[in-house]
Fold this protein.
Amino acid sequence: MACFFAQNVLQYFLDAPHEDHGNEVIYMAKDKEKSKKRWKGIGAVFLFLLVIAAGAGIFYLGHKAGGGELQFTFPSKSTTTTTTAFDPANGLEVYVIDVGQGNCQLIRFAGQTLLYDGGEIGREDDVTSFLRKIGVKRLDYVIASHAHSDHVGGLAYGILENFPVGEIILPFVPKDAVGIAQSYNAFLKAAEKKHNKEGTVISESKALGRVNFYLGGENGAACKILGPTQFVLNNGGFESINNNSVCIQIRYKDTSVLLTGDAEEKAEMSLIESYNDTLKSNLFIAGHHGSATSNTPDFLNLVRPDMIAVSCGLNNSYGHPHAEVLAYCKTHSIPVYRTDYQGSLLFVSDGNHFSPYVITE
Ligand SMILES: [Zn+2]
């Protein structure tokens, strides 16, 4: 079944005109054109009303699409960022959405959005509601990091259906891989439906050694797929589904955020070999929910994050995040923000550094 759907979906871009571009040029051009018009037309959606509670370190972000207000709070008074530095229209926003034991991040710059994973089956309504509350009307890019249900379940059963989607980037999944989630087949079906209905581009993740696409134009946030590397893919990919996770670094001016899905030690080693100290990222979304099978000291020594966010469920049966990872962060004075303790999180970059916020409703 998996192969049938995979082939069916993949056929769309195999048939499409090709350039080694990471995305399909013809479809993408049309899509961008549509996207531009759409954004012009609904610019008003992004008229966020920012009400700052002066001096309290607390402010409210109101918005038209809402249905309730979200409250953004500094998690620590030790941060030097002031509330006035936050401007959602100009900064790079990285939302780490609380989906319990699973993974889901939304990155937004200048109104363009990238959703990286969609949480477990059953989380689709929570994620949809959260996205609507922060004013998301369209997902320009959706990346499924790998074929496990705590990453694609929500995408399969509602999120894709609930938003217009520009492009869906699929992970590499080895044909004979064991442990491909049933929900991954449902996800591929949902992607196929989006393609048929709205012309959503379906592409396969490619590390090009350069920027794959931008959010908010060429002066915006540069999204570079790092892994699995082309070398790894040319050799059939990794055996493990986790290690084939789509790894992406997003850079805005002097800051960057790194997302590696559930990539584990082997994949981290391959990233080290390929990219060395360019892995340096101000914000790191901990690999594999903070497991010690990922986040190896050698890898973290190169990423050298200013802060780490962990997406995991409260009292999860895996014990994520693992003590070794937390100990590393403590030793290196890296603040750790966790969805199990703090709920959904927001990190905003002004181009110089990220400011963390805890989100409450
Ligand atoms: Zn996972």
Remarks:
- The chain has one domain: 2-78+101-360.
